[in-house]
Write a structure and sequence with these properties.
Low-confidence stretches: none
Mean pLDDT: 88
Strand order of the largest sheet: 1-2
Number of helices: 3
Number of domains: 1
Oligomer: single chain
Strand content: 15-25%
Largest sheet: 2 strands, antiparallel
Order of helices and strands: HEHEEEH
Structural class: alpha+beta
Number of strands: 4
Radius of gyration: 22 Å
Length: 145
């Protein structure tokens, strides 16, 4: 993998982590949403990443790629968390059932903030990798010039 391959891999990570931060922000913004267009309470969403390496290529090619730097990452989807919704007793809420309980989103704000910090750190690591590759390219130009 050349220098530009490293920048490309890091850039793919930055793009994926940016989407992850957007989804986490959307989760936090909807922590109290009890009605959605699909009906029912909002469900937490999660981003699914996958390596950009073509896994269906011959074994020797995949192995040689795995021994080198990675090929980057891609987002393969955004899925809804199917864990149970939170039940909150609030008989005055317009969405309360006959027993007075409201289905609230399955979002834990603390866990979302931890995920946001993790995504931010991963984004920053990819920025550092791009800057390091850029600095190496500039040094290579100085040597040749």
């Amino acid at each position: 993998m050349g220098m530009f391959g490293g920048i490309d891999a890091a850039a793919s990570g930055m793009t994926a982590e940016r989407l992850r931060m957007d989804v986490i922000s959307n989760n936090i913004a909807n922590v109290n949403t009890t009605r959605t267009a699909q009906g029912g309470a909002y469900r937490r969403q999660m981003v699914v990443f996958q390596s950009r390496t073509a896994e269906n290529s011959p074994f020797s090619q995949v192995l040689s790629r795995k021994l080198e730097a990675g090929d980057g990452v891609k987002v393969v989807g955004i899925v809804k968390d199917q864990s149970p919704l939170r039940k909150v007793y609030d008989p005055n809420h317009p969405d309360a059932n006959q027993d007075g309980y409201v289905d609230m989103p399955n979002i834990n704000v603390v866990a979302e903030m931890v995920d946001m910090i993790t995504a931010t750190r991963a984004y920053e690591a990819n920025v550092t990798a791009v800057n390091a590759a850029k600095n190496m390219a500039l040094k290579a130009l100085e040597i040749g010039g």
